[in-house]
């Protein structure tokens, strides 16, 4: 339906198992002053072809496997309050095992009655290539967030999210909602579903289909272009002056880049940029920029740990400190003896790595 206004005034009915009507309500449009900006992400599902990821389903792998999922967040709740930690998904999967009827249907069958059986879940990883890159279920929990937030969820909200049936061709409808945090008023760490894998499991619980959630129409670009797109214009200017654009455009990569925001450079002495851009200072500029780059892909929630040290491209290390802010959101701080910076724009994926925006520049040791 392209025009939601067509639903205004219609009745929404919930039926019992015997088809009798259990409850109903009239659909009304929310007043303009109470509407929130809903965010939509989409992904195309593809098979996870690695044998260790497709447990018990090799006979179902075929050219027909696939699907598409749309994820909605920032939904409106009661009294117009946004459900900050709520997410809904809607889509389909094809090429699955045919004629499945989950035990959740309640007809006495036991199909899908295993951990992750017939599951449809958002994971906390960053890609689909391996089990490690896919990660585990995405929700507020201590083993992922390295903290004991009062908003931690004790039970996995994805545990029963699954498709209930498949038809004779192995097609399943994917529809459901989950609360990934535990607060109606405080933004959670785990509400950033962008770039997260959406996984569809088989009846045995194996991971069968996967797709990375992105803004509809978004295409991945390399790190320098991503930095420019995200507004790190001063950082890109410095990369250009140091002839570093070519290195960070290498399609093989991968790299992790900690890019200072333009505001971060504004905090520096006005002579700082002039010195960096001076022709005689090119060696220092290269050292400065390479202190913001490391090899490999390091994603903030999956790969950072408290006290972790990361070797940067100039040979020095940075250290990671993870803490809970007064608003119970995860804070990742990068520091050394010269500087301290906070990640303010995490996990901006590129074709050859990932970029994290930081609120202060990182000063190489001894400068």
Number of helices: 9
Would you state the CATH class of the largest domain?
Answer: Mainly Beta
Our Rg estimate from Cα atoms comes to 23 Å
Low-confidence runs of at least 5 consecutive residues: 50-62, 143-150, 184-188, 325-329
Describe this structure in words.
- By secondary structure, the protein is α+β, with helices and mostly antiparallel strands.
- The protein folds into 2 domains: 34-215, Superoxide dismutase, copper/zinc binding domain (Immunoglobulin-like), CATH 2.60.40.200; 223-358, FAS1 domain, CATH 2.30.180.
- It is 15% helix and 30% strand.
- It contains 9 helices and 17 strands.
- The chain has helices at 131-134, 142-145, 223-229, 233-241, 245-248, 262-266, 270-277, 282-290, 300-303, and strands at 11-15, 21-26, 39-47, 66-76, 82-94, 120-122, 172-179, 197-201, 207-212, 214-215, 255-260, 293-295, 309-311, 317-324, 330-335, 340-350, 353-358.
- Strands 3, 4, 5, 6, 7, 8, 9 and 10 form an 8-stranded antiparallel beta sheet that branches.
- A hairpin with a 5-residue loop joins strand 4 (66-76) and strand 5 (82-94).
- The longest helix is centred in the middle third of the chain and has 9 residues, at 233-241.
- It is elongated.
- The model is unreliable at 50-62, 143-150, 184-188 and 325-329 (pLDDT under 50).
């Amino acid at each position: 339906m392209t025009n939601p206004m067509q639903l205004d005034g219609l009745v929404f009915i919930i039926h019992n198992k015997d088809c009798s009507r259990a409850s109903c309500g009239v659909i009304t449009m929310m007043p303009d002053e109470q509407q929130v900006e809903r965010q939509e992400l989409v992904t195309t599902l593809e098979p996870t072809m690695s044998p260790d990821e497709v447990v018990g389903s090799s006979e179902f792998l075929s050219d027909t496997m696939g699907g598409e999922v749309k994820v909605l967040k920032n939904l409106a709740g009661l009294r117009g309050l946004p459900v900050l930690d709520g997410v809904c998904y809607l889509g389909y999967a094809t090429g699955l095992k045919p004629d499945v009827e989950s035990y959740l249907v309640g007809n006495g069958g036991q199909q899908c009655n295993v951990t992750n059986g017939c599951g449809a879940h958002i994971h906390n990883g960053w890609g689909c290539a391996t089990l490690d890159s896919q990660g585990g279920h995405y929700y507020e929990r201590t083993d992922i967030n390295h903290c004991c937030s009062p908003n931690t969820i004790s039970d996995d909200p994805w545990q029963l999210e699954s498709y209930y049936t498949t038809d004779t061709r192995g097609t399943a409808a994917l529809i459901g909602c989950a609360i990934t945090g535990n607060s109606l008023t405080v933004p959670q760490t785990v509400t950033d579903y962008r770039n997260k894998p959406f996984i569809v499991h088989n009846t045995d619980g194996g991971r069968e289909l996967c797709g990375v959630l992105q803004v509809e129409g978004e295409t991945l670009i390399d790190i320098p272009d991503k930095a420019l797109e995200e507004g790190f214009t001063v950082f890109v200017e410095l990369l250009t002056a140091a002839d570093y654009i070519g290195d960070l455009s290498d399609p093989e990569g991968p790299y992790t880049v900690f890019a200072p925001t333009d505001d971060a450079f504004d905090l520096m002495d006005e002579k700082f940029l002039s010195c960096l851009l001076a022709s005689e200072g090119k060696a220092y500029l290269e050292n400065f920029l390479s202190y913001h780059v490391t090899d490999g892909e390091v994603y903030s929630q999956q790969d950072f740990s408290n006290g972790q040290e990361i070797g940067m491209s100039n040979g020095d290390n940075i250290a990671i400190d993870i803490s809970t802010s007064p608003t119970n959101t995860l804070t990742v701080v990068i520091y050394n003896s010269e500087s301290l910076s906070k990640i303010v724009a995490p996990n901006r994926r590129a074709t050859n790595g990932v970029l994290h925006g930081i609120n202060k520049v990182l000063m190489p040791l001894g400068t």
